[in-house]
Amino acid sequence: MAKKRQQYKPRAFESKGKRKKKSGKEVADTFAMVFLTMLESPAYKDLTTRQQALYIWIKAQLCGADRHPRIDYPEQTYPEYEEIRKDTSFYFSWANALETGLYTKSMQKNFSCDMQALKNHGLIDIVMNGKAHRKRTVYKYSSEWQKWNI
Predict the structure, then answer these.
(1) Which end of the chain is less crowded, N or C, counting CB atoms within 10 A of the terminal residue's CB?
(2) pTM, full prediction
(3) Which helix (H) or strand (E) holds 132?
(4) Which helix (H) or strand (E) holds 90?
């Protein structure tokens, strides 16, 4: 008989427990796990403070996003998009960036540059460019940051 996996219960200083969505509905809180090896890596340290914060917001997409590419590109309809259906793929649009509070409406170019910096430092990669397909850009988490040197 398999043991039931115990769910992590955040401590009072870590979470309010629930969060409100834009619709007003309360949902369970999510978290973004970042390991010390990443925080201490040359790739992560070379990022600006805003780029580091952007990555944390992107990492929160792993469990907390309302929509995942794997839902929007089911295997029956899009058999050629196998890479998009992996658990490491995600969306993060300009609208998402505005919601974080890291950017204002006049900073769209800064957002694009920061996303490019995350890509150049090996933290994320582009799976499908949305501009070319008139859809949302699909990204994936990358481990290339481990090989990155200044």
Answers:
(1) N
(2) 0.82
(3) helix 130-133
(4) strand 89-90
128 located within any domain:
yes
52 falls within a domain: yes
Summarize pLDDT for 123-134 with one digit per residue, the tens. Answer: 999 888 877 767
CA-CA-CA-CA torsion sign (145, 143, 96, 23): negative
Distance between CA atoms of 103 and 129, rounded to whole angstroms? 22
> By residue range, what is the domain housing residue 132?
34-147
**Alpha-helical segments (H) within 32-123:** 36-39, 42-45, 49-64, 69-72, 94-100, 108-120
> Higher confidence at residue 23 or residue 128?
128
Answer whether residue 76 shows pLDDT above 70: no
Counting the structural domains of the chain, the total is: 1
Which position has the token pair 């007003």?
A: 24
- Identify whether 26 is part of a domain: no
- The pLDDT assigned to 37 comes to 94
C-alpha 50/C-alpha 3 separation (Å) is 41
pLDDT value of residue 101: 92
